[in-house]
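Lab notebook page, bench 4
Experiment: in silico fold of construct C2
Operator: M.H.
Input chain length: 188 residues
Purpose: comparison with the prior construct
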Amino acid sequence: MPSNSPEVLLIGKLINGDQQAFSCLFNQYATNLLHIARKYVGDEEDAREIVQETFYRVWKYRQNMNASLSFKAYIITIAKRLIFNQAKKRLHELAYQEYYIKRHHDDRINELEDYLNFQELDNRIQSGIDSLPPKRREIFILSRHQGLSNQEIADKLNISVSTVENHMNKALKHLREIITALLLLTLC
């Protein structure tokens, strides 16, 4: 580009901090750059931000410019880098969102499965308690639900402590068998 062309003179003034030269270059190239940016990003607002950021960088780094090089090529290079960085950032954001949604969804499914498994186990245990002989069921409920000691149960029911222990051992064995059977079913 000839060293005395109007563009080279404007760039020289821009390098020296002339705001009017900057405005002239902005007015001359902003619309064209907006069309290019819109073509790549597809969104008007994002394209305008690319143009603004491009010219912000032109002003900020004006002292590093070479007045003899094409200004149009210079701003297109800046804009393409910004577009590429924006696209890369969006890809990372989308990947993270997808990961987060999948993980959150998987956690919810696991919570639901755990809840359903617990409900099933609780129902089976309650059925097992209900199926105990009446005296054994009463002793079990006094022990596990009401928190009475073996001695307190024996005193309350007028039976020996060893009879309470015998009933509790048989009740617990019965419930362990129910739980073991349920666990074996879930593993298969």
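Observations: The two ends are 79 Å apart (CA to CA). The CA atoms of residues 109 and 115 lie 10 Å apart.
Next step: discuss at group meeting.
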